[in-house]
Design goal:
With about 140 residues, this protein is an alpha+beta fold. It has four helices and seven strands, in the order E-H-H-H-E-E-E-H-E-E-E.
Length: about 140
């Protein structure tokens, strides 16, 4: 799965979706963390590009719950993360493992990790992971998709 956020997505839909979540984040000091609304929108746009790609090109659905990502074609909640390079994937996985252990979060058991280039807006799926009750384990790697 590869795409370019500028050429392969509906830019207006991407911005509207990201802005709506950014405003929710901005409303609380704990989630705002000293950032301006514009900074939050920029961060959310980066991650939402992968979510919108799954919605527009792979028939996923937007998860209607606050701060949740997408629902796959089988009806499973999917967490989507985007990072700048392979070198950071282990850190993303560690954060997701910690979040999944906090049962109050109801964290999805399926995780898609994309690598996104902020300069070119090119994205590719790095891997699909499933939570085994202790950690996210690789199910499908980028070369298999």
């Amino acid at each position: 799965m590869e795409f370019n956020a500028k050429t392969d997505l509906d830019g207006q839909a991407l911005y509207a979706r990201a802005e709506a979540e950014a405003k929710l984040i901005f409303r609380k000091d704990s989630t705002r963390r000293g950032r301006s609304l514009e900074q939050i929108i920029e961060t959310v746009l980066y991650g939402h590009a992968a979510e919108l790609y799954l919605i527009e090109h792979h028939n996923f659905k937007d998860d209607p719950h606050a701060y949740k990502d997408v629902i796959d074609t089988d009806g499973n909640q999917v967490e989507v993360k985007v990072t700048e390079g392979k070198y950071y994937v282990q850190h993303v996985l560690a954060r997701c493992n910690d979040a999944a252990k906090e049962t109050w979060r109801k964290y999805p058991e399926i995780l898609y990790v994309f690598i996104g280039d902020k300069e070119t807006c090119d994205y590719h799926l790095h891997g699909i992971y499933h939570y085994n009750g202790e950690q996210f384990c690789l199910q499908t790697q980028e070369d298999d998709v």
